[in-house]
Automatic annotation (TrEMBL):
Any one GO molecular-function label of the UniProt entry: methyltransferase activity
Pfam families: Methyltransf_13, Methyltransf_14, Methyltransf_23
InterPro entries: Methyltransf_Zn-bd_dom_put, Methyltransf_Zn-bd_dom_put_sf, MeTrfase_14, SAM-dependent_MTases_sf
UniProt superkingdom: Bacteria
Organism whose genome encodes this protein: Streptomyces rugosporus
Residue ranges of every copy of the Methyltransferase putative zinc binding domain listed in the record: 8-67
UniProt domain C-methyltransferase: residue ranges: 247-404
GO biological process: antibiotic biosynthetic process
Protein name per its UniProtKB record: PyrC2
Length: 409
């Protein structure tokens, strides 16, 4: 089921579309070669609300299509991400979860990287995630997980069973959820008095500054900013009380919200609002200029690959990411340009990329016969990847990056 809209999902005012990526597949569903042609497509377009400053997609893809039981992403696949969540868990164990009989709830717990650290500390916890296979991994490690989508009804059931939560946390999930009203209603029903709802998500300011256009795909229904989260929280009876940038996914912001009047906002909120206004995040013209840069980058990437191919160079991709779906399908890049994409996720290997149908191979294939060039689709893990694959560079291989501009390193 697809839902299209011309009004803002937060404040009901008209929105202005500024970038259309055209026909796109569901980004994290990788077909078997025999199933090519069965993918579901939608129009990926983004719009700006001049009233509440929310950037959002025009067409909503059904949550069941995006997050099926066999959803393949695993948080534990990156050492950097694992270390990040261990630090986050340690912080909250010292602060919000330090009281007696504290209860922690995580929306989108995936395979339990963060949840496991809370479990190890002996704190009551519950993860909520619709991806059954990922949830099984977390459960097998001793974490409590509810398989399903978080919404108001779920939150009320949890409260009745487990009592109020001191902390509701979510990482890289809240922007996926178009029905954000039910999320905040659920948080309001589940939180203890004085409790907080904290979420981390890709930061709009970094996406615009660095032309990270591939952060726009079906799962990222909202591109969040301090201004839009503040408006969102107020709309649903909450208040944004703190913000903090964190170094994941090429630029992430952590938002701390509480019921209105229960906590005093920090100076960081006002400071970041000023920075966003100065950057132009409240102006449609900023997004129109971003769209022009995106079109230029895509044209240059396609021309670069075509030129290298004409010179007889072999080219692979690195990281069958959700982000790569936007790049490959918008730019019209397929097997004529990229031989295969390597990915360490076993569930993706032997399949093909959605829409563009490029074969996905294991890292062993990549290392057995290095290509001349590799397009780094997993650029948000560039440092980790380049260290792990340093032999590729030593063998004469070169990485191709496409944001903020197209270049080889």
């Amino acid at each position: 089921m697809l839902r299209s809209m011309s009004t803002c999902r937060i404040c009901d005012n008209p929105v202005r579309e500024f970038l259309d990526f055209g026909r796109q597949p569901v980004s994290d569903v990788f077909p078997e070669p025999a199933d090519i042609g069965t993918e579901h497509f939608f129009r990926l377009a983004v719009a700006f609300c001049g009233n509440c400053t929310t950037v959002q997609q025009v067409e909503e893809v059904s949550r069941d299509r995006m997050f099926p039981a066999d959803y393949p992403y695993r948080s534990s696949g990156s050492a950097f991400i694992k270390q990040h969540f261990q630090r986050v868990a340690a912080h909250y164990l010292r602060t919000e979860l330090s009281g007696q009989d504290a209860f922690y709830v995580e929306i989108g717990c995936n395979d339990g990287v963060m949840l496991g650290a809370i479990r190890d500390a002996g704190v009551r916890h519950l993860g909520v995630d619709p991806a059954e296979q990922a949830a099984k991994v977390a459960s097998a490690a001793g974490c409590r997980v509810h398989v399903g989508f978080f919404e108001e009804a779920t939150a009320r059931e949890i409260r009745e069973t487990d009592g109020p939560a001191r902390l509701i946390f979510s990482a890289n999930t809240i922007s996926h959820i178009a029905y954000i009203d039910s999320i905040f209603a659920g948080a309001g029903a589940l939180l203890d008095q004085g409790g907080v709802f904290v979420f981390e998500d890709r930061y709009l300011g970094d996406i615009i500054t660095h032309t990270y256009f591939d952060q726009i795909y079906d799962e990222h229904f909202y591109l969040l900013s301090v201004s839009s989260v503040q408006a969102m929280a107020r709309r649903f009876g909450f208040e944004l009380v703190d913000v903090e940038p964190v170094p994941t996914h090429g630029g992430t912001m952590r938002y701390t919200t509480a019921r209105a009047g229960e906590r005093t906002p920090t100076e960081a909120v006002a400071r970041w609002l000023e920075l966003e206004q100065a950057q132009g995040l409240w102006d449609l013209s900023t997004y129109e200029a971003f769209a022009e840069r995106v079109r230029g980058n895509c044209a240059e990437l396609k021309e670069t690959l075509a030129r290298l191919r004409a010179d007889g160079k072999s080219i692979a991709g690195y990281g069958a990411t959700c982000k790569s779906a936007t790049v490959l399908n918008y730019c019209g890049i397929g097997v004529e340009s990229i031989d295969y994409i390597t990915d360490s996720t076993a569930e993706k290997q032997g399949r093909v990329t959605p829409g563009s149908h490029i074969p996905i191979r294991s890292p062993e294939v990549f290392r057995a016969n290095y290509p001349d060039y590799a397009v780094l689709f997993a650029w948000n893990h560039a440092e980790e990847v380049m260290e792990k694959e340093r032999e590729f560079k030593l063998s004469g291989g070169r990485w191709i990056l496409y944001a903020p501009d197209v270049r080889t390193v």
